[in-house]
Amino acid sequence: MLPVCVKTNSPLLQEFAADYWASKAIGAPASRPSSASKTNPAGGTASYWEVARKRFIKKGVGAYMVKGDQWYGYDNEKTIRIKMKWLKEKGYGGAFIWALDFDDFTGKSCGKGPYPLLNAISSELEGESENPEITTEEPSITETEAYDTDETEETSETEATTYDTDVTEETSETEATTYDTDVTEG
Is 51 exposed, middle or buried (0-12, 13-18, 19+ CB in 10 A)? Predict the structure, then answer.
């Protein structure tokens, strides 16, 4: 008798194992945002210090982590360095980080010191700054002759209309709201 997966009652064969792990990689279908994380109680994102040091895919230049039914794609120092090299090759002017507080700002989670992602960007781009001389051409002005035309355009004028309205919204339930404020008249 073949061993079976408890959840699906499918045989645990190489094919099953390959399909299972393939479904946990880049390109796997997703049905919802990720669950709440320490940095985002609403779900959908997690910070680098929560997912660092998991898995890396060379072909797609991406790091990812799988935890149960949760899948996170993210950048680490290695992917950042690769992307900074690409950025320089293409002649782009710089890079940015979406949220500094999602980096390992204490340096305790990844063990690589504070801000490992920001430092990877900085070290790859350091010394690359060129301040090219920016030249702007003087705008050219072309003179044209004025001309008369027999064409007339008919327009109609519309008088502005205003309405005085009282907007009252009636509801069946009214909730009392009080504000603790200091009002100074004078």
Answer: buried
